[in-house]
């Protein structure tokens, strides 16, 4: 077997895993963000309910103060009743007191309504508090899990980088350059297995002569179509007919237009 082939395959395996890890690391902040979202919602709801209850409590106190002022005014009206001289004045004054009593009833009704609202608000507040606590626990747990995964990725990445260095050291610089170019041009797959006469990089059938050379593996061989470096990967496997047909390239398509 060509001495470069195994390190090359190893290098690609490492590079693919490194890429996978980096992709996961890129997505990590979004996952943490998502884990915090339910808690943020719960906190917002709690804040809204708290200020609503506070506003209603303040309004209730204001109405109670209104009631006190109103009652002292009504008290003054009643006290003046005895000072009145004519019946007409007396009747007018009685009417005023009656109106004041009616107003008192209205204020009392408002207070009662506000007390009910405050009570309901406080009940909602307790529920929201419980939901917030629950969301907090879930978020903490999920973030701890994500952090553990992230720490695992960091140490795996460090290990892979070490192994990568070792693989790179086994390759000559020209071959490494070729690998890099192919990797960039061929969607990160520079080395492809050959199975059943088919290059698994481009899925095209290769000439039997090339297949035989790849199987012998004395020299590094490239795919006729995609130029990927080929390695023998076991005995032929049944392959669906469709994948053995050459795919039309964009240039072929242009010619038919
Ligand atoms: Zn190919």
Explain what you see.
- With 257 residues, the chain is mainly α.
- It folds into two domains: 5-169, Helix Hairpins (Orthogonal Bundle), CATH 1.10.287.1490; 173-256, no CATH class.
- It is built from six helices and five strands, in the order H-H-H-E-E-E-H-E-E-H-H.
- It has a five-stranded mixed β-sheet.
- Helix 1 runs antiparallel to helix 2.
- The two termini are 47 Å apart.
- The site of zinc ion (ZN) has 9 residues, from loops.
- Zinc ion (ZN) binds next to loops.
Brief summary of the model shown:
The chain is mostly helical. It contains 6 helices and 5 strands; from the N terminus they run H-H-H-E-E-E-H-E-E-H-H. It is 75% helix and 6% strand.
Strand content: 5-15%
Bound molecules: zinc ion
The side-by-side strand order for the widest beta sheet comes to 3-2-1-5-4
Task: Give the N-terminus to C-terminus distance in angstroms.
Answer: 47 Å
Apparent shape: rod-shaped
Determine Rg (CA atoms, Å): 41 Å
Q: Could you say what the CATH topology of the largest domain is called?
A: Helix Hairpins
Low-confidence stretches: 236-257
SSE run: HHHEEEHEEHH
Structural class: mainly alpha
Instruction: Tell me the number of structural domains.
Output: 2
| Annotated CATH architecture of the largest domain | Orthogonal Bundle
Multimeric state of these chains?
single chain
Helix content: over 70%
CATH class of the largest domain: Mainly Alpha
Mean pLDDT: 91
């Amino acid at each position: 077997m060509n001495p470069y082939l195994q390190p090359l395959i190893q290098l690609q395996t490492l590079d693919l895993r490194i890429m996978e890890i980096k992709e996961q690391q890129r997505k990590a902040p979004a996952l943490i963000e998502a884990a915090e979202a339910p808690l943020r919602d719960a906190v917002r709801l709690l804040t809204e309910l708290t200020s609503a209850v506070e506003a209603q409590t303040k309004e209730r106190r204001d109405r109670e103060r209104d009631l006190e002022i109103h009652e002292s005014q009504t008290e003054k009206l009643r006290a003046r009743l005895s000072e009145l001289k004519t019946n007409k004045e007396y009747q007018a004054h009685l009417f005023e007191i009656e109106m004041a009593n009616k107003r008192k009833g209205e204020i009392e009704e408002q207070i009662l309504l506000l007390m009910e609202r405050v009570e309901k608000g406080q009940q909602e507040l307790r529920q929201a508090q419980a939901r917030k606590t629950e969301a907090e626990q879930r978020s903490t747990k999920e973030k701890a899990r994500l952090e553990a995964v992230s720490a695992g990725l960091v140490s795996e990445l460090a290990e892979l980088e070490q192994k990568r260095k070792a693989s790179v050291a086994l390759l000559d610089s020209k071959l490494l350059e070729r690998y890099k170019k192919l990797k960039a041009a061929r969607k990160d797959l520079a080395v492809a297995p050959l199975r059943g006469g088919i290059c698994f990089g481009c899925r095209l059938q290769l000439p039997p002569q090339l297949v035989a050379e790849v199987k012998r593996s004395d020299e590094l061989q490239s795919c006729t179509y995609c130029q990927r470096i080929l390695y023998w990967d076991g005995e032929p496997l049944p392959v669906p007919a469709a994948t053995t047909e050459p795919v039309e390239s964009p240039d072929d398509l242009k010619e038919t237009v």
